[in-house]
Specification:
The protein is mainly alpha-helical and about 325 residues long. The chain has one domain. It has twelve helices and no strands. The longest helix is centred in the middle third of the chain and has 27 residues. Its main location: membrane. Belongs to the EamA transporter family.
Length: about 325
């Protein structure tokens, strides 16, 4: 219908070129669009990673993602190793949390829909951030987020793989620990060097799981190429986009946009993977997003106080927070 007025679909190479140009010249792109680009890139990377599970294990996929991302970041930042015992310990802990978060996320993704894994994982640091507050309204946001997780987990009568759900909860714990330790590392190691070193520690930590689960499949050229793609989509592009966005927008606005990540995960899972969530699970995703948005907007309306730790609902500094 009206075919004579429709423009032809752009070739895949043209689309890829536009994305590269957007990342290469981030100041030419509006900050909210950069944020959306970063979040969609993260979830697209997760969708690509899920396609690897027919050839590699979740441990193998995690090894490829963290390994290539670490190599790229180390080449760019060239961090020094003179950190001191305390800072070095924080970096190691940070890297181990990064490994736990990603390994459990991909293990969960092997058994549950993308939207379920992302939302439950996202709820971890959100609930940790709200748990330190004594305000009744923050308690209400925590209850809303917790109720959303219960709905996603099968409270509404939808069956969810039990082991996959356990991996989701483990991812939430790892994500929360990653955010807390990441905040401490960012105070001691300036710029992106702490992230690069932590990524390297995480890559080494997951290597035994990758070798045990995938073996020589990790050396297949096609698998290596897909691993590079996952690392770029899930780490390099989102981090670059978010760094450029945060330079031109208030941290509170950044946090509001970041609250949309569970919904984007569910959308990407539906469109690219055909994962249709049941209505109680969609309602659960909406509850978690609403809790994150509510907590962020309420805090934004209050007078500025001492800086708080970065969480998905209250973020003061960008990091490669995505599992």
């Amino acid at each position: 219908m009206y075919a004579h007025v429709l423009r032809p679909e752009p070739a895949p190479a043209t689309v890829a070129a536009r994305l590269v140009a957007a990342v290469g010249r981030p100041d030419a792109v509006p900050p909210p669009l950069l944020m959306l680009l970063g979040m969609f890139s993260t979830q697209l990377g997760a969708a690509v990673a899920k396609q690897l599970f027919g050839t590699t294990s979740p441990g193998g996929t995690t090894t490829l993602r963290l390994g290539f991302a670490a190599l790229i970041l180390l080449a760019v930042t060239r961090p020094g190793l003179r950190l001191g015992w305390r800072t070095g310990g924080l970096v190691v802990g940070f890297g181990l949390m990064l490994a736990l978060m990603n390994l459990s996320f991909y293990a969960a993704l092997h058994r549950v829909p993308l939207g379920v894994a992302v939302t439950i994982g996202f709820a971890g640091p959100l609930l940790v951030g709200l748990a330190g507050s004594r305000r009744l309204l923050d308690a209400a946001w925590a209850v809303l987020a917790g109720g959303g997780v219960l709905l996603i987990s099968g409270l509404g009568g939808t069956g969810v793989d039990g082991l996959g759900l356990l991996f989701c909860v483990t991812c939430a714990v790892g994500w929360a620990g990653y955010v807390v330790l990441g905040g401490a590392v960012s105070q001691r190691v300036p710029g992106t060097r702490g992230l690069a070193l932590g990524m390297a520690v995480g890559a080494v930590a997951v290597l035994p799981f990758g070798v045990a689960g995938s073996g020589t499949a990790l050396l297949d050229p096609w698998i290596l190429l897909l691993g590079v793609g996952v690392a770029l989509l899930s780490s390099v592009v989102p981090y670059s986009a978010e760094m450029a966005a945060l330079r031109r927008m208030p941290p509170r606005v950044f946090a509001v946009l970041l609250s949309l990540e569970p919904a984007i995960g569910a959308l990407v899972g539906l469109v690219l993977l055909g994962e249709l969530l049941a209505w109680p699970q969609f309602l659960g995703v909406a509850c978690v997003v609403a809790a994150a948005l509510g907590a962020t907007l309420v805090r934004a309306a209050e007078p500025r106080e001492a800086p708080a730790r970065a969480t998905p609902g209250h973020r003061s500094e960008p990091a490669d927070h995505h599992p």
